[in-house]
Structure prediction request, 94 residues.
Amino acid sequence: MQDDLDRALAKLAAMPADARLEGLDVAVMARIASNAGDARRGARIGAAATFCALAMGVIGSTVLGVPVPARASGVAPFGVSVPLAPSTLLAGDR
Prediction:
């Protein structure tokens, strides 16, 4: 299996590069340069998303927030009584 892969990679390395790849890097860099003006639009979208997230957080915590009293949980991972331990779950009602 490894020899087949090595042979296939060696064959691929020996093949000449496709002629269409000659000007690809220049075209890519030109496209990146033409999209540089879109950075302002991205910053505006980011600012709008930040504002919306902050507004939802403030509204959710003030308008819709109802105080909930804290209550103690009956499950303690290192306590004396561990109701969710595998040994107690597998033992059943003994």
User: Anything to note?
Assistant: The mean pLDDT is 80.
